[in-house]
Design a protein that fits this description.
single chain; 111 residues; mainly alpha; flat
Length: 111
């Protein structure tokens, strides 16, 4: 897909600005993902884990929706799955706002 995307940038002169912004957006998502992982490592709480899961659910939903829109295969299924995952991501983000930050996860509690 990346090869096809780079080929689109080189061929279409009038869309270079749009494609450049798309690449910057993708790099920004990768950078924010790294920051989210660092935040989860530093805080190491239930709330930080919920926040991390919500961010990566959002990223995966964007990937699924893009794959559906660019007709990679199973277009409608990918778009609807991405939309459902987007809703789940937002629900996790709302849950993050109400989770008690002081709770530390314990493996013993789940075993």
């Amino acid at each position: 897909m990346l090869y096809h995307f780079i080929e689109m940038i080189l061929v279409d002169e009038e869309m270079k600005g749009v494609f450049s912004v798309m690449i910057l957006y993708a790099l920004l998502v990768v950078f924010i993902s790294l920051l989210v992982l660092v935040y989860n490592k530093i805080k190491n709480s239930r709330a930080s884990m919920v926040f991390t899961m919500s961010w990566f659910a959002l990223v995966v939903s964007e990937i699924l929706r893009a794959a559906g829109y660019y007709e990679v295969g199973f277009d409608e299924v990918l778009v609807h799955t991405g939309q459902i995952l987007f809703i789940v991501s937002n629900a996790l983000l709302v849950y993050y706002t109400i989770v008690n930050e002081s709770e530390k996860p314990s493996i013993v509690k789940y075993v």
